[in-house]
Design brief:
Layout lengths: L3 E8 L5 H15 L5 E8 L6 E8 L2 H8 L2 H10 L8 E5 L6
Length: 99
């Protein structure tokens, strides 16, 4: 099986930037314990604080499925829900060039 790459975009509701950042950092730390996660990196737009991007790389689709079914992801969704400006955008991608 081949690696699965995903970009997730999450935006905080006004005034909820710090709370969402903390919830996402907590999610990143928990996700790093998953065996099939190769990269799970949180970024924030320095010009638009509260706009977050997560670069995710999984060993295979089974690792994605395990992540999506994890208790810590469910807890993060529950915590982050009222902090969001809108629905997150989840975009699976394929590598075209680079390393």
């Amino acid at each position: 099986m081949s690696e699965v790459h995903v970009f997730a975009t999450v935006s905080a509701a006004a005034g909820k930037e710090d709370d969402l950042r903390a919830a996402l950092v907590e999610l990143v730390e928990a996700t790093h314990t998953e065996p099939g996660v190769l990269h799970y990196i949180l970024h924030e737009d320095p010009k638009k604080l509260g706009n977050f991007y997560v670069f995710e790389v999984y060993k295979d689709q089974a690792a994605v499925d395990a992540h999506m079914g994890s208790a810590h992801l469910a807890a993060a969704f529950a915590k982050a829900g009222p902090l969001l400006a809108g629905a997150p955008s989840i975009t699976p991608t394929i590598v075209v060039a680079g390393k």
